[in-house]
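Researcher: Can you fold this with NAP in place?
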Amino acid sequence: MDIQGKTVLLTGASGGIGQALARVLAAAGARLILSGRKHEPLNGIRQELPGEGHLAIAVDLSDERDRQQLITLAKDQNVEVLINNAGINQLSMHADMSPAEIASMIDINLTVPMILCSQLIPILLQRQAAMIINVGSIMGSIGMAGSASYCASKFGLRGFTESLRRELADSTVRVVYFAPRMTSTAINDDKMVAMNSALGTAMDQPAEVAQQLMSVIASHRRREHYIGWPEKLFVRLNSVLPGVVDRALRKQLPTVLSHATHH
Ligand SMILES: NC(=O)c1ccc[n+]([C@@H]2O[C@H](COP(=O)([O-])OP(=O)(O)OC[C@H]3O[C@@H](n4cnc5c(N)ncnc54)[C@H](OP(=O)(O)O)[C@@H]3O)[C@@H](O)[C@H]2O)c1
């Protein structure tokens, strides 16, 4: 898709990946509707973007009324590209997760993108060319200790995206699943960063992730995109030989336990 002149709704625009995405999208000539929870930082980001006509809206996506406000704005603005990027994560053994924490992970990472899609598909179908991009994760294909709820939400998002792509196959709405690997942003708290460094996990910069998403948007065929070649391989391996991945991850378990367990 040629993003020049397109109206893009970007959730999680105040986050690490979101800000980087906003910058490259605006530089490529897109008009952005930026959403996050706090008005001040969002407005600051909006003012620094190249181009004109960008909007910022502070909404808590877990709140139905707030969500409706965002949907109404996106409809009024004739949105053409929906990027479901807002997300939350928490390193924790599953038995330490409260019911509210589990529900919130599924809500923000899975239910909200599903609702935004259902509400905006009628508008997207009216456009000559439209796109839905759901930001998943490598952890949407490989279950990891210490991240069970997050993995569940992203596995769900991947399945949802695949279904929707098939449902809209005869339409002008292109549906893409985009899966970053570990990226240096605030979603990873100190415990997660310490664990990743102990495990030697590669860490991308948000600007690199944003560039990769731009190349996916520009291409016409990409349905799914996973960042990092060892991760791509691991995703394949996990689907055909999960026992091999079980054994590899079993070796990491003591390190995960030492960082994820509440002391
Ligand atoms: N960073 C990684 O390692 C990594 C790896 C793979 C996939 N991802 C995915 O990439 C996406 C972006 O993550 P990030 O790394 O940029 O994280 P981040 O810096 O923590 O940003 C998260 C964004 O989501 C927004 N958000 C969270 N809860 C919300 C709510 N209830 N209502 C509205 N907005 C809410 C945040 O808004 P506020 O500013 O108001 O908090 C923020 O803009 C997520 O879907 C994440 O799962 C990240």
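Model: Folded with NAP in place. Strands lie at 7-11, 31-36, 55-58, 81-84, 130-135, 173-179, 224-226.
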